[in-house]
Every structure is written in C-alpha cells, then in structure tokens.
Amino acid sequence: MIELNGITKTYRIGATEVQALAGVSLSIGPGEMVAVAGQSGSGKSTLMHILGCLDRPDSGSYVLEGRDVSKLGGGQLAEIRNRRIGFVFQSFNLLPRLTAIENVALPLLYRGRSDLPAAPGGRRCGPKALAEQTLDRVGLAPRMRHRPSQLSGGQNQRVAIARALITDPAIILADEPTGNLDTATGQEIMRLLADLNAEGRTILIVTHEPDIASQCRRQVHLRDGRMISC
Amino acid sequence: MLMLWTTLKIAAGSLWLNKMRSLLTMLGVIIGVGAVIAMLSLGTAFGELISGQISGLGTNVLFIRAGQFRHGPMSSIQTLVPEDAEAILNIEGVRSVTPVSINAGPVKAGNKTNNTAPVWGLAPSLGDIQNVQMQQGRMFNDSEVRRQARVAVLGPKTAADIFGEQDPIGSAVRIRNLNFRVIGVTKPLGDQGGFNPDDRALIPYTTAMRQLPPRRDFVQTIMVSTFDKESIGPVIKDITSLLRQRHRLRPDAADDFAIQNMAEILETFQKVSFYLTVFLGTVAAISLIVGGIGIMNIMLATVAERTREIGIRKALGAKNGDILRQFLIETLVITIGGGLLGLALGWGLMAGTAAAVNQWLKLSPMLQWWVVGMAVAVSTAVGLVSGIYPAWRASRLDPIVALRYE
Fold this sequence. Notes:
The complex is a heterodimer.
Chain A: E1 2-13, E2 16-28, E3 33-37, H1 44-51, E4 59-64, E5 67-68, H2 74-84, E6 85-88, H3 100-105, H4 127-137, H5 153-165, E7 171-175, H6 183-198, E8 202-207, H7 210-213, E9 218-223, E10 226-229
Parallel strand pairs in A: 3-8, 3-9, 6-7, 7-8
Antiparallel strand pairs in A: 1-2, 1-4, 4-5, 9-10
Chain B: H1 4-17, H2 19-56, E1 61-66, H3 82-88, E2 94-103, E3 107-109, E4 112-114, E5 119-122, H4 126-129, E6 134-137, H5 142-146, E7 151-154, H6 156-163, E8 172-175, E9 178-186, E10 201-204, H7 205-210, E11 221-226, H8 232-246, E12 257-261, H9 262-305, H10 307-315, H11 320-356, H12 369-395, H13 399-404
Parallel strand pairs in B: 5-10, 7-9
Antiparallel strand pairs in B: 1-11, 1-12, 2-5, 2-11, 3-4, 3-8, 6-9, 7-10, 8-9
C-alpha cells in the first residue's frame, strides 16, 4: 500500500542546511496500524508531510497504492490528499466559524457533486447526509450544529477524525492526535482509532509519546532522519 | 470543483462576522460608485436641460441680429428691416422667416398686472420656427399683420397671471396703454430656466413696430428656420451676401449683422456638458481607485490572518485554483455589495440634488440602465483588480508553512 524507498529531504533554514530525512525506506501494508515515534527533530514531521502528499521528497520514491506520487504536480497531489488521505492533527485544525457538520463536509467541497463517496451502506447521498452519518460514526451526531469553540478537546478531535473519514481514504495520518488532550480523553481517541483500524483502515500515528506508540501493533523509530527500528 | 453557493455563503459569513470592517472596506466602493452615478446622472440631466432650452428655441434655427457684437450698442443700427426677412424667404433651403421686435411689458387686464412677460412682435410663421401650438383660440394671421391689428396671443402663464380661471379669449389686455384683444393662448412648453416660453405676449410685428413706443422701421432680430441641418451652412452664406447687397455694404466694410446658428450653439453646449460630465465622473472615479487600494490592503490582511485556514483547506485537498477563487469571490462580494449600496447612495444623491436645486434648475435626472450596468461592471472590475493579488498570494501559500502558522 505504501512503499517508501530511499527518501531524503533537506531544508534550508537561513544559511544552514538541515537534513530532515536521510534515506528512509518503509513499507506499510493495508490494514496496518503503525506508530512513527521519535524525538522532536528526528524527522517524523517531515516524513508525515511527505506521506501526506503535502511535500515532495528530494530523492527516493513514494509509491502509494501502486502509483509513484513523488514526482506529481501540486494539483495532482491536492487530489490525492482529497481522495486517498485523511489527516488528523494535534491541534484539530477545524475551521472555527463552521459548525461540526460543515467542518466534516469540508473535504467534499473540493470535488464534484457527482463524485461523492458512497455512504457506509453503499447508498449514495448528499454531502450533508454523508457528514451526518460520519459524525454519527464517531458518536457526535447530537452535536453537529456546534462550533469548535462549543465543543471539548476530545469532541473536536472526534470531529476532525470524522472529517478525515468522510472521503473514505486509503490511509489516515494522525500527527500527535492526543498531544492536546488529557490522558483519559487521549485514550478514548486511541480507542476510536483502534476501532477504525479493526474495520480494516490503515492508520499511521506520529507521536513522541512511547505510551501512545506502544498501543500500535507496529512501531517505527526515527532518529536524525534515519530509521533505527522497523 | 468549488461549489459557488457554498463559497458565497462562506464569504458572506466571514463578512458578517466582521460587520464593521466589512462596512468600512465597502465604504470606498460605496462612495465611489455613488459619486460616479450622481455625477453622471446629474451631468447628463444638466446637458439635456440645456439642449432642451436651446432646441425649445427651435432646431435648425438661425438668429440674425442687427449690428455686430464688437461695434457699438446694437440698437443704434437700424439697417435690419422686415423687407430683409421677406427677401430671405426666397433663399433656397429656407423654410420660414419672421422678424422679431421685442418690447417690454407690463401686460395688464383690469387691476391685474404681469410684469415679467416680454412682448414679442412676430409674423405668424413663428409657429413653424419654434414649436408653438395653440391651447385655445388661434394665432394671428397675415392680414392682421398687414393691417397692424391690435390682437395678442398669450403664453399660458401670462394668461393665468392676469385672467386667473376666467376665459381670456375675446377679453382685452393693455400693453403700454394700448388695448389688445386676446385671440389665443399657447400650449405650455414648460419653464426652461432663464427663458420661459409660457410667459410672453405675442403680437403682430407691424403693430409692435408702428404702434408701441418707440415707433420704428427696423427690427433687432430676424429668425430663420431651414428645412434641414445640411442646408444651414449654404443658407448662412446666402443670407450674408443677400444682406450685404441689400444694406449696400462696400466689400471692405464689416457686416452690420451677425448670424447665430442655434444648431452650432447647441452642439457646443452639448460638447461642453459632455466634457463636464466626463470630468466630474473622472474625479469621482478617483475615489473608486482609492477604494480599490483600500480593499486590496484589507484582503492582504485577511489572507495573512487566515493563513492557517488556507493550510487546512489545502491539506483537505483544495487546489491553488480553489483558494484563489475563494478569496476572489470574497473580494467580489465586498465590491459588488458596495457597488449596489453605492447605486442606492448615488440615486439618493441624484434625487436629493435635483430636489435641492429645483427652484432654479428644473433637472429631471433618471437612473438609466447603462448607469446601473456600469455600477455593477465597475465594482466587479475593482473587485477583480484589487482581489486578484491577495487571492494569488493566498493560493501560493505552502500548506506546511500555513499549517504551522499561529
């Protein structure tokens, strides 16, 4: 499903060059739940950006579902982000002015009406109905008219997970999904992610907390832009 | 593909959230469009008023005035006579001619007096030159002119001033202690500001010259109308040589008359009022440019403020074009909204100004469709021009950098 081969990425901060990734190769199969662990500065955020098609590697290849995406242009990458990847962020990144249901439906805004994913039952329905069903899946249907400021951190993260799910993506990328939550709420979110994994979804969690990493079946450790264990 | 309706809703929502800022941002466009519309409408109305006044004196009309404007007082020249008018009528292209001999009033009947109406001594052919039609009674005829009949046709205002509700036909009016019988009242033409064709008394020119003091053989003016615009030039030439010959002027002598071409004067006035309108419109348009710069400034600030939102949208699959469209549409909502409010403001200014000066100038400005179309077009153009750069900046943001932005 995901094949990374010899990925390198170098940043320039002022006059100094920082090598964030120095040849990372990684293979992730469908239905896996993988933790990418490492200290800050280990390159895990950069890896996440490349996996999420937000950035391109300097060298190496990234094959996603049989397609080499490392050389694609901005528009094609945007399309892959929209269709194949669901993002969950540490700080939720919901739009504060939109209600929960509007936030969840947001990714559907960037594709045609005739191009909507099928609802869980295989039926076709509009973006609103689809967003409502997805919110229901994370247990937040009763709060769909609330704005992010009216919801707790855990609830906001559930809305964000629903937003990642609505496009029926191949992979969910979660960047420190519990970082802004207390331990109990963090555990709830981890349970939700584990449930989604049990349904067969591929999930990749970037974290620096060993606790969280240990809840994933497979752990990948990064240090100084290199893999130190798979 | 970004759904237009949703984008509009998002744009309207974000504008509503910052009501005060949106209004202040729009203000430049509101004032600019309002000023342009008011200026153009009022300028056009003013031009039409002047055109109306001049064409109220008749189109394709020439005024021949005795004397020359640089040679002494005009009354001292006594060479222009009614016979000249008869001779001019034979020139090819001339439709009709009338001598004009103007006396001052007052016009009285019983104990009522009208002090404003001038007394025009004319031939009946005036009706062919100026658009004079009868409301009541009739115009005097050629035989009444020949026998210097004391008959008068009154303008409707003059008639109302001295007769009120009473039927004036057959009644007597006194002009300079002479009794005239009223035989007709003209149809109202409307006060044209400065010249009111509804307030005058028309009498045969022979009566005016021979019976009203000072008695005289000459006239100040001859009015000539031509069949069409094209014959005006040749007719002026022919009149000039005919009158020089009739007045026995030596080849080196200056003309003792001057010919005013009303069509030419009308054209000049129309040109002046057009340039005046364009000038005022341009001045007003400058405020639109200033407004546009203000909007660009605000939109740049908005883009900076919403960097994170842009990053989120991009992460969720928005293409550069989607972001560009979103911010462009937001700018267009501001400017077109401002344009529509400006349209209302401009209409208010236009109607208000017209009402304020109504006492002196009978302006009747109208909101024409092209003005409305222009307001929308201009505000769209301002939106596109001032919105494209901020929107482009937004669309080019790197999603990683934008997501990290606090």
